[in-house]
């Protein structure tokens, strides 16, 4: 039996007290300088807009003295920016605005991705989600059944905002579910692909609600379905793919939120989550997201982590079934 002297016992108690005090002290001192969020996309892209709105609102609360700033690091479908986040010090001062593409799709389709999406990031807060809309030219097929017949007849093509994008992979999932093939024509961004769809150079496209709605409302494009489990409130007359094509549970979402480097101390994670979730509960901020046909969310670390695990498994299977790989 080991017998502790009074001095040794006192030392253990002090050590334990110090261990408990350290996280409290860290939490009290944080933040002591500006917090930076790396956005792995260009200025003006939807994720950039959402991140700036969130950063501005967060800067009005606990972070008022030091503020939250954004830094764009675009390139390689979001890989360059997310790699910078993964390699940053896990101290709460460098965060990332991670999208579904960068955290779930890229790891499923890229052969040499320089980060591990499952191990290199600590989810903080998921702040938005939005479906895709299945679109055709204004004089194209009048419903999904007619589009499916045209695709199955052969020779159809579709566009996307780039290889490995949510739009690309969402369309591949649709094609797998209907048992058909079509030629993929990748573009650099949503604007050019939608203009070519309007011109009739493409057969169909799956695009974000934010990008698609203005053209649908103007009558330049026809919306055939949304990739949600329920109809979109801003497109109440457009059916879901489950309704229109008999595809039970067919859901494809653009989504994103704040992540930190793995190993960020738990007290800092808690502060960050509280800050961003509080911001996302503000009616004025939620309204700004809704203006972009996007659903605002206030989902914490555990929920965000569970969402990512599910999506990572889903897109790995889509990539495997379609033999989709990007070098």
Automatic annotation (TrEMBL):
Specify the domain of life of the species encoding this protein: Bacteria
Alphabetical keyword list: Signal
Q: Which residues form the signal peptide?
A: 1-27
Protein name from the UniProt record: Tripartite tricarboxylate transporter substrate binding protein
Q: What does the similarity note say?
A: Belongs to the UPF0065 (bug) family.
Checking Pfam families in the record gives: TctC (PF03401)
Q: Which CDD domains match?
A: PBP2_Bug_TTT (cd07012)
Q: Which InterPro entries match?
A: BUG, Bug_dom1, TAT_signal
């Amino acid at each position: 039996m080991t017998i502790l002297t009074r001095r040794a016992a006192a030392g253990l108690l002090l050590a334990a007290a110090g261990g408990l005090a350290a996280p409290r002290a860290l939490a009290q001192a944080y933040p002591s300088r500006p917090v930076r969020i790396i956005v792995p996309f260009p200025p003006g892209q939807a994720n950039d807009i959402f991140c700036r709105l969130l950063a501005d609102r967060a800067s009005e609360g606990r972070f008022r003295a030091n503020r939250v700033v954004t830094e764009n690091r675009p390139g390689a479908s979001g890989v360059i920016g997310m790699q910078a986040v993964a390699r940053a010090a896990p101290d709460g001062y460098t965060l990332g605005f991670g999208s579904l593409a960068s955290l779930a799709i890229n790891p499923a389709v890229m052969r040499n991705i320089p980060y591990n999406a499952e191990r290199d990031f600590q989810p903080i807060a998921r702040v938005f989600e939005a479906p895709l809309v299945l679109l055709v030219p204004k004089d194209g097929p009048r419903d999904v059944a007619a589009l499916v017949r045209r695709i199955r007849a052969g020779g159809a093509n579709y566009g996307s905002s780039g290889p490995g994008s949510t739009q690309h992979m969402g369309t591949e999932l649709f094609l797998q579910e209907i048992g058909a093939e079509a030629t993929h024509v990748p573009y650099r961004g949503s604007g050019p692909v939608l203009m070519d769809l309007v011109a009739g150079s493409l057969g169909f496209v799956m695009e974000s609600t934010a990008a698609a709605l203005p053209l649908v409302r103007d009558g330049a494009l026809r919306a055939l379905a949304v990739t949600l489990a329920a109809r979109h409130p801003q497109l109440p007359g457009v059916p879901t793919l489950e309704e229109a094509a008999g595809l039970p549970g067919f859901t494809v979402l653009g989504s994103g939120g704040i992540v930190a480097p793995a190993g960020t101390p738990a007290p800092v994670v808690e502060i960050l989550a509280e800050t961003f979730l509080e911001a996302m509960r503000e009616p004025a901020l939620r309204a700004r997201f809704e203006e972009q046909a996007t659903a605002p969310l206030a989902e914490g670390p555990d929920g965000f982590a569970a969402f990512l695990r599910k999506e990572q498994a889903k897109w790995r299977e889509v990539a495997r079934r379609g033999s989709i790989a990007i070098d």
